[in-house]
Design brief:
111 residues, mainly alpha, 3-stranded parallel sheet, 5 helices, 3 strands
Amino acid sequence: ALEDLKRNAYGILIPSSWYENFPYVVTESLQSGCVVIAARIGGIPERIVHGRNGFLFEPGDTENLVSVIRSLPQYDLALLRKNAQESVGDLSEAIFYERLIVLYRMLISRV
């Protein structure tokens, strides 16, 4: 049911005020092709490129958030969703597995 909600939503709002290093909700939303509208704080801006795969606003600045939300209709939702999924392509299970195996082999070779 959650995936259906994300597919039918324009985006997901993440008004975080905490300096999270790698917020899972951002990654999970992008993988689902959901456009992320998030506070520019912690590790969030490392994954969100404003206007490409999501949108950023200044934490605690409601006027900035309103401005971002009002600008949404000028963007191509299908393109944003495509860019969202592509932006976390390096986090797929297969790629993660391959990187982990390379690391293990390197460490074993040092023993």
